[in-house]
Structure formats: structure tokens, C-alpha cells
Amino acid sequence: MTGYTCGVWPARRGRGLVAVVVDEDGVAQAPLPFGRGPEAAWALLAWLDASVGLDCELVVPDWLAKSHDIARFALERGGAVWLVPVPIMEAVHVVAHLATGPPARTAAALARLPLAAALRAHLRRLAPPPPSPQLPLL
């Protein structure tokens, strides 16, 4: 796997989300806090496109993809999205002692998961919905 990944995790006290971009060597950039609304999600995706490129892959917990628009918006823009199942997230949380650390550490750990082949096999890749067939007007 080459390119950038971006882990997304909730900030403390419901203040939005935190995103951390990681390069193919696992080196994390500075955390980027953003809000929870749709406008904030679009702004994050636009920032990712402008700063690290369109091929940046989003990594989110399964439950966050269901409760927030960020994964759906990324798919609509043609981006790749990795979903982390709850058991994998819980195991990483325990092993890396993430429960006591800042949310940015968890976001960086999420972003690194697809870089490890052994863990990548346990992640689920979201695919964009197939294009709907359109009938000609005439």
C-alpha cells in the first residue's frame, strides 16, 4: 500500500472529530480538529484533497461511518474508505493503551491500521455505490 491514510476519531466531550494523516511510512502529521456537521466533513475532505491529494484513504471505526456523514461523503467524492470493526478497534485500544491518551493518538493508530498487512485483512473496504442506470429521454 502506498500513499496517505487519514484516521478519524471523536474529540473529547463531543467537540467534533479529530483527523490525523499518516504517510506510507507511518509518520503522522499534526492532528486536525473539525466539527461534526456536514459542512465540517466536506471541509475536511477538501483540505485532504488540497494538502495530500485525492488518493488519501479514510480510516474510520465501523460505528462512526454509520453515525456520521464523513464516510459517505468520501465515497461520493470517489475516495477510498476503510472500516475498522469494533473488535479490532477494541483490541487496538487495549494493546496501545489508547483509552487514556488524546483522541489524536487514536486517530493516528486508526490511520496506521491499513499499513499493516496482517491487520488490513481484518478491515472492510467500503466501495462506492454502483452508478444508477439512466434511461435516455428520447
Task: Briefly say what this structure is.
The model has no long low-confidence stretch (mean pLDDT 89).
Describe the fold and architecture.
The protein is of the alpha/beta class. The protein has a single domain, classed as YqgF/RNase H-like domain (Nucleotidyltransferase, domain 5, 2-Layer Sandwich). 37% of the residues lie in helices and 20% in strands. The chain is built from six helices and six strands, in the order βββαβααβαααβ. The chain has helices at residues 38-51, 62-67, 70-76, 86-95, 103-112, 117-120; strands at 5-10, 17-22, 32-34, 57-61, 81-84, 124-126. Strands 3-2-1-4-5-6 form a six-stranded mixed β-sheet. β1 and β2 form a beta hairpin. It is globular. The termini are far apart. The model has no long low-confidence stretch (mean pLDDT 89).
CATH superfamily, please?
A: YqgF/RNase H-like domain
Mean pLDDT over the residues: 89
Low-confidence runs (pLDDT<50, min 5 residues)? none
How would you classify the helix and strand content by structural class?
alpha/beta
* The first-level CATH class name: Alpha Beta
Quaternary structure: single chain
Which word captures the global form?
globular
Q: What strand order characterises the main sheet?
A: 3-2-1-4-5-6
Percent helix among the residues? 25-40%
Radius of gyration: 15 Å
Number of strands: 6
N-to-C span: 46 Å
Largest sheet entry: 6 strands, mixed
The CATH topology corresponds to Nucleotidyltransferase, domain 5
What is the succession of H and E elements? Answer: EEEHEHHEHHHE
Q: If helices are DSSP runs of H or I spanning 4 or more residues, what is the number of helices?
A: 6
Q: Return the domain count.
A: 1
Beta percentage is 15-25%
Q: In the CATH classification, which architecture applies?
A: 2-Layer Sandwich
